[in-house]
Amino acid sequence: MAKQYETVIGLEVHVELATKTKIFCGCSTAFGGAPNTHTCPVCTGMPGSLPVLNKQVVEYAMAVGLATNCQIHQYCKFDRKNYFYPDNPQNYQISQLYLPICHDGGVEIETAAGKKVIGIHEIHMEEDAGKLVHDEWEDCSLVDYNRSGVPLIEIVSEPDMRNADEVIAYLDKLRLIVQYLGASDCKLQEGSMRADVNLSVREVGSEKFGTRTEMKNLNSFKAIARVIDGERARQIELLEEGKPVIQETRRWDDNKEYSYPMRSKEDAHDYRYFPDPDLVPVVISDEWLQAVKDRQPELRTEKLARYKKEFDIPDYDAGILTESKRMADIFEETTALCGKPKKVSNWLMGETLRLLKEENMEPDELGFSPAHLAKLIELVEAGTINQTVAKEVFERIFYDNADPEKYVEEHGLKTVNDEGELKRVVEEVIAANPQSVADYKGGKDKALGFLVGQTMKAMKGKANPGAVNKLLKELLQ
Amino acid sequence: MQLKDLTALELGRKIKEKEVSVREAVQASLDRIAQTDGAVGGFVTVDAEGALARADEVQKGIESGQYAGPLSGVPVAVKDNICTEGLKTTCSSKILYNFVPTYSAEAVLNLQKAGAVILGKTNMDEFAMGSTTETSAFGPTKNPWNLEHVPGGSSGGSCAAVAACEAPYALGSDTGGSIRQPASFCGVTGLKPTYGTVSRYGLVAYGSSLDQIGPIAKDVSDCAAILETIASYDKKDSTSLDRREADFTSALVDDVKGLRVGIPSDYLGEGLDDEVRAAVMRTADVLRGKGALIEEFDLSLVEYAIPAYYVIASAEASSNLARFDGVKYGYRAKDYEGLHNMYKKSRSEGFGEEVKRRIMLGSFVLSSGYYDAYYLKALRTKALIKQSFDRAFEKYDVILAPASPTTAPKLGSSLSDPLKMYLGDIYTISVNLAGLPGVSVPVCTDSAGLPIGVQLIGDCFKEKNIIRAAYAYEQARGRWVAPEIAACEAASDNMQAAGSAAKEVG
Are A342 and A425 within one domain? Predict the structure, then answer.
């Protein structure tokens, strides 16, 4: 019988924090900008410059630690990780090795196979590096230090995951937690969330871990799923052939869908970590820790439970609405304004998701104001516009954040409630469609629908379909 | 007395009283530099044009009331590891031979706010690594008392420039004695403040946890006034301290009655030159005569200071100096193939022997498998040394000690045996490890005519105790005496005859 193998996976997740300024200087963290314009002597490693810690970084790291059930080291330190590379202007990265800010936590994930807790070994703070641009035409490399010194946290999991489903559920859980905290936008494609996958295989039932490899450069959930399946197969094949798995770092090429070795353990760096003498230890007082605890916002799990209890909406809807902080915020703010959670949910679950899909957008990119959606719902409720017009107006809200009242006014979209006007048009429609009138009178109810449609068309959609229906029936009696 | 012979405060007073213009003061220094620095070699960069332009600006500032402090208009020499905006800052290294900072160190900014005029940058041991100023990539500085001897180091250029009356005062930096030892060799006064008193922002780091900028001058009054000017709490330096009692000049009082002075007997044993020991005892007698209580005691752990220091300072240096790689600024090798070869060649060609030795030593002690045995153990030793000083300061206000076991050695006699050179730091190094303030004060000359200085060490934040003791001693000793620079005095006479700006005053 063939051997059964189990995959053992641990993740190192880097999250770029949403601070306005860098971790050790006052330079902007804004994305883009001409090369080397968001720089100063500190983040370009000039002689004599010194780092000063950005307090907001500590608060975000604490918040993420608390939300992932970690212990907080109230006395933590920064260490230097020494290695030479041109994107690293000091040739050391300021990170945390010996006393990281958060340790020993975990989050619960849910997959088709059920619920499971994934342990978090530690979370530490560090600085990002600059970016190298290789100019093949000039045969030279250029370096842009705009990213140098942008704050990161690295969330290191325990080797608790066993398959791609669990990995993706874990990443999604982290993403939601961090987004809910406002600590980062967590976009894999843009690199504000990056995952390195450590993977080994072992025979089912074995207590001992196999030799692991580390895969870098994974920038989508799909790539992560593919790399896990690919690396598992590669390692099992080696073992079946009686060959050893070599402990090494491999780089994933998502275009070619295969990984290749970057460096093996033999030539692994000795980073010569030691405490950074330029920075004093970070001492987190009980008061500071409590203040951060008190400021923790409601996270997704709690929000989901509250939605189910507080609003009369289906569980499925509540799940979708809370999957993005932005969506949940729009839902709550709109509901608070109009008091109709079911209607708000319908607009978000229906038209909003449809348009997002059509535009290939993420819910986080939603830009319209809840006040406008609330007003739209009120306009429909008051009979000022009908459902068809409302859909048209919503598109303007979605794309341009248009004010629905103004839009309806400017485009003359109000439902006509003037009975004389309506009667005149209905009479015209009856006169113009003798065949349908005859059919209706002959017992074909369907013909009435056609007449309603004709009336609506003549009214340019601005009539109340119920009123038209009623009037037609009266006149055709 | 000529302008060049005045102390910084005396010159500042004459400028304030309009007896001397700032331009005259600056010109006097520039003339003296022209006259003697060819022989002494205290400066690596002299910014005559910039200094004269600045002199006129400061003169206006004094007249408008912008500059009212005691150092307004007084020229200063700055050690070449302290960044000066627009003025080359090389650390006396080939690897930074062309580096012009876009910013000034906080200490320099503080001086400029007080109306200082920077004359230029002074020579030093490369990256402050050395005790003789012979490891400079630009050649050694000579001791103004005897040009065949070293000035000490690493702030040898600053101390020699002050001793040779080329600059009324100078800034130095002290990681293991780099202000106090050359001050003692050159017969000038040099003070290393409590760690954190002067911002390190803009000081090119050697051993970050030990480095401090401090004043070098003709007497302790100058040092107190300069320290008062450069000390400040700086948000740009996380290790900077918000000092409350920073009114150092208030301690310039000739009164040591009841001051408790301890002399570590373990500093007086083997290896200490007899004449230096005698100078320490003579200083003790003077202080006793003024009512101080003198006592010998055992400091302990003295033999561990040097190994602990060289492990910690080298470890930090190996990381601090990693940024000099030829990528962003400074020296890059001409021919190379690929990135690693570029790093290797630029650093091999750009750094001198002593710097490379310490980078290798530091990289070794931080290596995986050795970190605990060396670096961590050195940090524990550092903590124990601090504790032994803490115990001493329960009993004493001031510790009196030699600044160096000997007077200045001859040029060329030290570098061949680095271990022996390292041992010369034995009396100064523990002060850095414990973060304490220390001042070196000239006492006398030895039988060969070379200066001997003694060191006064205070508890953390107690600069005022050592300033008071040094000032009281100085009052008994008498006014500072300048060396005669044999090779230059003849030239000096000629220049005066030619009607240079050297001006008789007082």
Answer: no
A426 located within any domain: yes
* Catalytic site includes residue B500: no
Gap from A402 CA to chain B (nearest CA, Å): 47
A405 part of a folded domain: yes
| Contact in structure between B401 and B434 (CB atoms under 8 Å) | no
Interface mutation target, options A82, A93, A272, chain B, most CBs of B under 10 Å: A272
**One CATH from 3.90.1300.10, 2.40.160.20, 3.40.50.300, 3.30.450.40 for B3-302+381-490:** 3.90.1300.10
Do A205 and A302 fall within a single domain?
Answer: no
Active site residue B79: yes
pTM for this entry: 0.89
Give chain A's domain count: 3
Mark whether B388 is an active-site residue: no
- Of B446, B466, B450, B451, nearest in space to B287 by CA: B466
Distance CA(A188)–CA(A364), nearest Å, equals 13
Tell me if B323 and A91 make a contact (CB, 8 A cut-off). yes
Q: A90 to chain B, minimum CA–CA distance in Å? A: 4
- Six-digit token string for B258: 């009841």
H helical segments located in A77-204: 164-181
Least confident of A149-163, B198-212, B281-295, B420-434: B420-434
Whether A293 maps to a domain, the answer reads no
List, for residues B350-409, the tens digit of each pLDDT value: 999 999 999 999 999 999 999 999 999 999 999 999 999 999 999 999 999 999 999 999
Tell me which of B79, B121, B192, B345 is the catalytic residue.
B79
Interface confidence (ipTM) of the complex: 0.94
B369 burial via Cβ count (<10 Å: 0-12, 13-18, 19+): exposed
Give me the CATH number covering residue A461.
1.10.10.410
**Boundaries of domain holding A350:** 298-410
Rounded CA separation A163/B382 (Å): 50
